[in-house]
Design goal:
Enoyl-CoA hydratase domain-containing protein 3, mitochondrial; transit peptide; ClpP/crotonase-like_dom_sf; globular; alpha/beta; mitochondrion; 4-stranded mixed β-sheet; 269 residues; 2-enoyl-CoA Hydratase, Chain A, domain 1
């Protein structure tokens, strides 16, 4: 498999994001370590663009979001949140951030966060929004906005859907960080590995995902998130129909035939 590095997103000559690309996998790398990979408006728009890039390509099966430097992301750029910028600019920042987080959930392929370091505020929100999150044992997570008088209300949306309510509220009310092991225990992370194994383990998971049928992954991901908001009866009704629809896909039938014939399936995509 051929990989190439394609830095695409930049502002005023400064690279904000870089990508490693293969036909099935894309690694979006937050590349502003001097600013602790702050989610400035420019960074958010770049991230949005890179997530959307060729989203409908049937070859693409998984996206990984990682970062350069010791901080995964420190959250919003506080210089953009002063009075000088004004409420219209502030609204654009938070609306764009919200759109990025919703885009991750609504994207047709699984998105994995690979975290090595600190993820705070909107950076923690980004981790919580991803479908899978793998972190090194040196990572930590916090929503410390309350300490500077700015409650992490938008990060609370993703955090409150990823961890139990009382855990989320303690993080939000105190601003204190939790370790990677605590984050794993509470459901913010999928797994924690030693730092030197982080990339290897993340890529192992990504390649396992990429070995699956793209149409089946997309159908299943969409159904999973739709059913979460439903009552039990509605959720089963929705997912029962999803399984019927799944059987109507060429890959649904190919997988069953391959299993019965004791061979590997040959997916359409």
């Amino acid at each position: 498999m051929v990989l190439h590095v394609a830095p695409r997103s930049q502002t005023a000559g400064m690279i904000l994001l870089a990508c490693t690309v293969s036909p099935q996998e894309r690694n979006i790398i937050l590349s502003d370590p001097k600013r602790r990979n702050a989610l400035s408006l420019a960074m958010l728009k770049s991230l949005q663009s890179d997530i959307l890039h060729e989203a409908e390509s049937q070859d693409l099966k998984v996206i990984i979001i990682s970062a350069e430097g010791p901080v995964f992301s420190s959250g919003h750029d506080l210089k953009e949140l002063t009075d000088e910028q004004g409420p219209d600019y502030h609204a654009e920042v938070f609306q764009t951030c919200s759109e990025v987080m919703m885009l991750i959930q609504n994207h047709p392929v699984p998105i994995i966060a690979m975290v090595n370091g600190l993820a705070t505020a909107a950076g923690c929100q980004l981790v919580a929004s991803c479908d899978i999150a793998v972190a090194s044992d040196k990572s930590s997570f916090a929503t410390p906005g309350v300490n500077i008088g700015l409650f992490c209300s938008t990060p609370a949306v993703a955090l409150g859907r990823a961890v139990p309510r009382k855990v989320a509220l303690e993080m939000l009310f105190t601003g204190e960080p939790i370790s990677a092991q605590e984050a794993l225990l509470h459901g913010l992370l999928s797994r924690v590995v030693p730092e030197e194994q982080l990339e290897e383990e993340t890529m192992r998971i990504a390649r396992k995902v990429a070995s699956q049928s793209r149409p089946v992954l997309s159908l299943g991901k969409a159904a999973f998130y739709r059913q979460l908001a439903q009552d039990l009866r509605t959720a089963y009704h929705l997912t029962s129909q999803t399984m019927v629809d799944n059987l109507g896909l060429p890959d649904g039938q190919e997988g069953i035939k391959a299993f019965l014939q004791k061979r590997k399936p040959i997916w359409s995509h």
